[in-house]
C-alpha cells in the first residue's frame, strides 16, 4: 500500500525535476554565444515502488540522475586532425604570399626592372662609348641592380627570421596549453571522483585542445575518468595532470638546414622534437628550413636567387658560348675580354664581384673561377672595386686603341637579355622562371589551404550542430519545463487540500 503522503512526495519530486530543467535551460540560453560551450541536457528516470515486496501499484515519481553535456568526442577528434592540417597549410599560404611579394611578377619585378634599366644604359653607352658621364650612369644603374638583389635577399632573410620567431612563440604556446590541459585534467578527475559536474571544465579543456591542434598534430584519447592523454608523433605531451615540456635551443651544426636557427627538443629527455606532418609549427619549420624541390621553403627560394646572381655575374664577366639547334657554336665575349678607355691591352677586369672586392681579390677568393663565383650570393653581389674607382675601366672595345669599337659592349648587352646563360634560358627568362615557380607554389598553397580549411569548417559546423545551443530548441524546453513545473505545483496544491480535509475529518 502506498504511503499516506506519497502523492505530495511525488509532486514535490516533479517540482524539483522541473526546476532543474528550467535552470539547465536558462544556463544554456545564457551561454548561447559562449565559445566552446556544449549545451546541457537533463537526464531523469522514474522511481519505482520503495521495495520489491511493496504492494503499491504506483511508483514514487521522477528523479534527476545527471545533467550531461552534449558533445561528440569522435567529431572533436576529426576536427583536431583537420584543424592541424589546415593550420599548416595556412602558414604555407601566408608566407608564400610574402615570398611572392619579394620576387614580384613576370610583368612587374624590381629585379627585372633594374636589369632592364642597366641594359638600357649599356645601350646608351654603346652609342657614345667614351662619354664619361654615361659611364658613371652605367655604374649607378649597375650598383642599383646589385642593391635590388641585395634587398631581395635581405627581405627573404627577414621572412626567415620572422618564421624563426614564430617557432619559438609556438613552442611557448604549446607548453602553456599543455600545462592548462594537465591542470584541467586534474580538476576534472577530482570533481568526477566526488560526483560533482565536470561539464564546464571539459568545455574549457576542449577549447584549449582546439588551439593546441592548430599548433601541432596531436592524438587524443579519453580515459574512464574523463581525463585526456595527448601525444605528438607518438610521444606523450599530456597524461593526466602531467605535461611534458618543450624547449628551444640554437642549432650549432653548420651542416644542418636550421643552422643558427631554433631547434626544438623535449626538456626532460633532451631528445629532438618531431612536430609530425601537420600544425602551424610544422608549417613554420618547413617554410623556414625547406631547401629542396620536395620541401620548398625560404632557403630554397634564396638558393634560386643566389644561383641567378652567380650565373648572371659569371656570364657577364666571362662571356658565354651558345650552341644552336644545328650545332653551331657562337661565343659572346664577357667583360674580362674587353678593353676600357685608353687601355693598351685587354683589361681582364671582372665587372661583378661580391662585397665590393676588386677583380684580382675576387679571382684569388677561390681555387678556380667556379669556386670564386660560388662566393657570390644575391645578398653580397656588387660591382667590383676597380669599376667603382674608375669608370674608364668599363670595357667596350674588343681591341686596344679602338675607342669607337663596341664589340664587347654589344655582346654584354646581348648577355643581359638575349643570350642563353643557363641551359635554354636568357637572364630574363631565368629570373622569370623563378618568379613563375614562386607564383605557382603560392597559388597551389592557397588552393590547398582553402580546400582543407573548408573541410575543417564543415566538421566544426557538424560538431556545433551537435553540441551548440539552439534558441528555438531551448524555447521549446523552457515551455515544457514551465508547464511541468506548473502541473506539479497544481498537484502539490491539490494534495495539500486533500490532506487538510483528511486531517480535519480525523480531528472531528
UniProtKB/TrEMBL annotation:
Task: Name the major location.
Answer: other
Write down the Pfam families for this protein, in alphabetical order: Flg_bbr_C, FlgK_D1
What positions belong to coiled-coil segments?
146-187
Task: Outline the extent of the Flagellar basal-body/hook protein C-terminal domain.
Answer: 465-505
Domain Flagellar hook-associated protein FlgK helical: start-end pairs: 96-318
Give UniProt keywords alphabetically. Bacterial flagellum, Cell projection, Cilium, Coiled coil, Flagellum, Secreted
The record's listing under InterPro entries reads: Flagellar_basal_body_rod_CS, Flg_bb/hook_C_dom, FlgK, FlgK_helical
**Which PROSITE patterns does the record match to this protein?**
FLAGELLA_BB_ROD
> What does the UniProt entry say about where the protein is found?
Bacterial flagellum; Secreted
Family listed: Belongs to the flagella basal body rod proteins family.
The protein, known as: Flagellar hook-associated protein 1
> What is the species listed in this Swiss-Prot or TrEMBL entry?
Sporomusa acidovorans (strain ATCC 49682 / DSM 3132 / Mol)
Amino acid at each position: 500500500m502506498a504511503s499516506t503522503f506519497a502523492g505530495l512526495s511525488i509532486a514535490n519530486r516533479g517540482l524539483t525535476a522541473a526546476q532543474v530543467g528550467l535552470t539547465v535551460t536558462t544556463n544554456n540560453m545564457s551561454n548561447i554565444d559562449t565559445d566552446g560551450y556544449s549545451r546541457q541536457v537533463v537526464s531523469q528516470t522514474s522511481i519505482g515502488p520503495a521495495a520489491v515486496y511493496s504492494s503499491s501499484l504506483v511508483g514514487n515519481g521522477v528523479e534527476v540522475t545527471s545533467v550531461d553535456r552534449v558533445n561528440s568526442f569522435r567529431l572533436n577528434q576529426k576536427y583536431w586532425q583537420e584543424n592541424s592540417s589546415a593550420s599548416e597549410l595556412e602558414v604555407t599560404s601566408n608566407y608564400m604570399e610574402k615570398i611572392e611579394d619579394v620576387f614580384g611578377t613576370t610583368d612587374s619585378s624590381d629585379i627585372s626592372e633594374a636589369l632592364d634599366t642597366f641594359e638600357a644604359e649599356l645601350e646608351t653607352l654603346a652609342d657614345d662609348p667614351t662619354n664619361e658621364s654615361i659611364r658613371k650612369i652605367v655604374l649607378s644603374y649597375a650598383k642599383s641592380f646589385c642593391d635590388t638583389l641585395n634587398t631581395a635577399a635581405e627581405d627573404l632573410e627577414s621572412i626567415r627570421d620572422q618564421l624563426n620567431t614564430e617557432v619559438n612563440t609556438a613552442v611557448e604556446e604549446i607548453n602553456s596549453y599543455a600545462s592548462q590541459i594537465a591542470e584541467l585534467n586534474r580538476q576534472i578527475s577530482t570533481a568526477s571522483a566526488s560526483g560533482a559536474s565536470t561539464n564546464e571544465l571539459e568545455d574549457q579543456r576542449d577549447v584549449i585542445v582546439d588551439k593546441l591542434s592548430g599548433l601541432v598534430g596531436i592524438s587524443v584519447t579519453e580515459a574512464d575518468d574523463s581525463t585526456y592523454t595527448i601525444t605528438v608523433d607518438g610521444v606523450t605531451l599530456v597524461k593526466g595532470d602531467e605535461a611534458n615540456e618543450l624547449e628551444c635551443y640554437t642549432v650549432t651544426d653548420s651542416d644542418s638546414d636550421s643552422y643558427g636557427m631554433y631547434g626544438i627538443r623535449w626538456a626532460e629527455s633532451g631528445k629532438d622534437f618531431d612536430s609530425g606532418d601537420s600544425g602551424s609549427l610544422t608549417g613554420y619549420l618547413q617554410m623556414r628550413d625547406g631547401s629542396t624541390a620536395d620541401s620548398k621553403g625560404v632557403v630554397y627560394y634564396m638558393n634560386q636567387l643566389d644561383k641567378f646572381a652567380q650565373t648572371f655575374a659569371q656570364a657577364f664577366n666571362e662571356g658565354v658560348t651558345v650552341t644552336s639547334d644545328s650545332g653551331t657554336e657562337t661565343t659572346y665575349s664577357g667583360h674580362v675580354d674587353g678593353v676600357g678607355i685608353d687601355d693598351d691591352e685587354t683589361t681582364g677586369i671582372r665587372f661583378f664581384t661580391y662585397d665590393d672586392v676588386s677583380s684580382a681579390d675576387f679571382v684569388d677568393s677561390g681555387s678556380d673561377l667556379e669556386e670564386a663565383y660560388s662566393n657570390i650570393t644575391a645578398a653580397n653581389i656588387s660591382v667590383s672595386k676597380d669599376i667603382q674607382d674608375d669608370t674608364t675601366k668599363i670595357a667596350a672595345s674588343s681591341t686596344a686603341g679602338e675607342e669607337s669599337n663596341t664589340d664587347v659592349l654589344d655582346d654584354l648587352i646581348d648577355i643581359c637579355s638575349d643570350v642563353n646563360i643557363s641551359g635554354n634560358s636568357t637572364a630574363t627568362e631565368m629570373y622569370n622562371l623563378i618568379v613563375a615557380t614562386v607564383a605557382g607554389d603560392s597559388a597551389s598553397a592557397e588552393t590547398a589551404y582553402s580546400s582543407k580549411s573548408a573541410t575543417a569548417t564543415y566538421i566544426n559546423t557538424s560538431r556545433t550542430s551537435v553540441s551548440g545551443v539552439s534558441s528555438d530548441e531551448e524555447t521549446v524546453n523552457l515551455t515544457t519545463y514551465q508547464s511541468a513545473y506548473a502541473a506539479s505545483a497544481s498537484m502539490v496544491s491539490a494534495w495539500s487540500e486533500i490532506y487538510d480535509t483528511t486531517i480535519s475529518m480525523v480531528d472531528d
